[in-house]
Design brief:
alpha+beta, 9-stranded antiparallel sheet
Length: 193
């Protein structure tokens, strides 16, 4: 691979290739945050948009990840495409997306996913599956057709400070390029594997 000047160009190409080869969820990424006292916390989320501004995912604003990002917006993402033998690491800062952007994405979701956003008290204790199913039934009755976006549901954009591209090579002599964002664009350097 010959590295691009802009790592987001390579990311977009790699994601497109992964969409053709990954068995499911090529847009899955690990989101790493930290608690206020510094303990790391990681989980899988789905990338829903990406452009020159960053990487977007959506969540319940009452979730643990949202609380941690609101306390400390510094976070990391990791994409791993096993079928392509590649990974992309992103370090950056999470900012909330604008309401109109969250509204547009919410409207594009399947109806049951919209209901699920209302029904789930994400990251809160659940007394049993019946409790969740009852909440789904309640909100399905309340919103049989048009479902408004809950005020407690939105998205975050991870604005990258650094991006590392990794590609498998024989004998563990892997390719690694690290890009850092500057006022003038991206600087690029190669790393030992």
């Amino acid at each position: 691979m010959s590295p691009e000047t802009d790592p987001l160009v390579t990311f977009a190409a790699w994601l497109k290739e992964a969409e053709a080869s990954e068995p499911n969820d090529p847009n899955a990424m690990t989101l790493a945050t930290s608690t206020p006292d510094g303990f790391p916390s990681a989980r899988m989320v789905l990338l829903k948009d990406h452009d020159a501004r960053g990487f977007v995912f959506y969540t319940n604003l009452g979730s643990r990840k949202a609380h941690e990002l609101d306390e400390n917006p510094r976070c990391a993402l990791l994409f791993h495409w096993k079928s392509r033998r590649r990974q992309v690491r992103v370090e950056g800062d999470a900012v909330r997306v604008a309401d109109d952007e969250a509204d547009a994405y919410f409207k594009s979701r399947p109806h049951i996913s919209q209901i699920g956003a209302w029904a789930s008290k994400q990251s809160q204790p659940l007394q049993g599956r019946f409790e969740l199913e009852a909440r789904v039934a309640t909100f399905s009755a309340k919103y049989p057709v048009d479902v408004p976006r809950p005020s407690f549901w939105s998205g975050y954009r991870v604005v990258p400070r650094a991006i590392e591209l990794w590609e498998d090579r024989p004998f563990r002599l892997h390719m690694r390029w690290r890009y850092e964002k500057t006022a003038d664009g991206w600087t690029r350097g190669e790393l030992y594997p």
